[in-house]
């Protein structure tokens, strides 16, 4: 029961870096752009947010700076992939490496330094429930992240803007024939994805584990990318998938604390094992992928 309470209390916070990054990537991929540089954008956002917060700028300024850093890196990706029509896979990998390198460079003098995290908000009555009450004791970013999930779902499904983004992803030639600026829309979607990745990195570095260590993103960007496929490009599934990966991440900590006699490296690899298994299961269902997939994903488009 103690282990279950621990997992339930922390799973939303553990899921937040996955969720924020995956939501941004979902919007980018819905517009037809495959951005594999999410890991680097999260890393750059993490170090930017940490440095600003460490020097007294506060969490709000830290998150703002992190989002702008991620968006700036995504702008470089967009220029190469959309304006110059370079291969999106190759450019994304290069940008990811660049972001990780910059984070190591800028964060070198901040190794092992810490900042104050954000306070937890208690909801009356709900936060006092036994076992599950911890679910309702979260910081403000968690609640904003859940609100963002609902907002992105509403925009993509219920608004003209969402329809245009999906149309650009499905058939860019037809969208341009209707008068929509395909490249400009994709630029906006990619920059939104970079912004969200930067915010995800800032959350990981200044709230979830408020200290700086080189490589602290530790593959979360790749899991976020896999999460979009796992969710078959649907916002609701992204949310529940992020919760699943957050719970798995905490389960290995709970297992170690509970004295489970398993190799610590094996327990630490659980999120990645789950990622591989889930992707294998999803990829085997061709009908599901075809039904919800983005027709022009990763394909260059231009005059």
Features:
single chain; 303 residues; mainly alpha; ABC transporter involved in vitamin B12 uptake, BtuC; two-stranded antiparallel ribbon; 13 helices; 2 strands
Question: Would you write up a description of this structure?
Answer:
The chain is an all-alpha fold. The chain has one domain (2-292): ABC transporter involved in vitamin B12 uptake, BtuC (Orthogonal Bundle). The chain contains 13 helices and two strands. The chain has helices at residues 2-30, 38-54, 58-83, 88-107, 140-158, 160-170, 172-177, 182-208, 220-230, 235-257, 264-268, 270-283, 286-292, and strands spanning 121-122, 137-138. A two-stranded antiparallel ribbon has the order 1-2. The longest helix is centred in the N-terminal third of the chain and has 29 residues, at 2-30.
In brief, what are we looking at here?
The chain contains 13 helices and 2 strands; from the N terminus they run ααααββααααααααα. With 303 residues, the protein is mainly α.
SSE string: HHHHEEHHHHHHHHH
Q: Please work out how many helical segments DSSP would assign.
A: 13
Portion in helices: over 70%
The side-by-side strand order for the widest beta sheet comes to: 1-2
How many structural domains in the coordinates? Answer: 1
Q: How does the helix and strand content classify structurally?
A: mainly alpha
Classified by CATH, the class is: Mainly Alpha
Count of strand segments = 2
The coarse silhouette is: globular
């Amino acid at each position: 029961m103690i282990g279950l309470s621990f997992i339930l209390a922390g799973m939303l916070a553990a899921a937040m870096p996955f969720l924020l990054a995956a939501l941004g990537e979902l919007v980018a991929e819905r517009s037809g752009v495959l951005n594999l540089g999410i890991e680097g954008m999260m890393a750059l956002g993490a170090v930017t947010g940490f440095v600003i917060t460490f020097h007294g700028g506060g969490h709000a300024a830290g998150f703002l700076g992190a989002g702008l850093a991620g968006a700036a890196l995504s702008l470089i990706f967009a220029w190469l992939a959309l304006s110059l029509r370079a291969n999106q896979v190759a450019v994304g990998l290069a940008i990811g490496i660049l972001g990780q390198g910059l984070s190591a460079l800028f964060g070198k003098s901040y190794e092992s330094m810490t900042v104050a995290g954000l306070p937890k908000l208690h909801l009356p009555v709900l936060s006092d429930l036994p076992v599950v009450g911890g679910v309702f004791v979260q910081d403000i970013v968690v609640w904003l992240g859940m609100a963002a999930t609902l907002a992105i779902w509403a925009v993509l499904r219920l608004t003209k803007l969402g329809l245009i983004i999906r149309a650009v992803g499905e058939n860019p030639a037809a969208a341009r024939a209707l008068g929509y600026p395909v490249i400009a829309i994709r630029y906006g979607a990619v920059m939104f994805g970079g912004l969200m990745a930067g915010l995800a990195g800032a959350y990981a570095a200044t709230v979830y584990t408020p200290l700086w260590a080189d490589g602290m993103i530790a593959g979360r960007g790749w899991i976020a990318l896999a999460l979009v496929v796992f969710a078959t490009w649907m916002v609701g599934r992204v949310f529940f998938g992020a919760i699943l990966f957050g719970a798995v991440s905490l389960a290995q900590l709970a297992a170690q604390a509970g004295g489970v006699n398993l190799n610590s490296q094996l327990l630490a690899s659980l999120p990645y094992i789950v990622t591989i298994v889930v992707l294998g299961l999803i990829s085997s269902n061709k009908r599901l992928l075809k039904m919800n997939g983005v027709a022009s994903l990763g394909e260059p488009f231009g005059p």
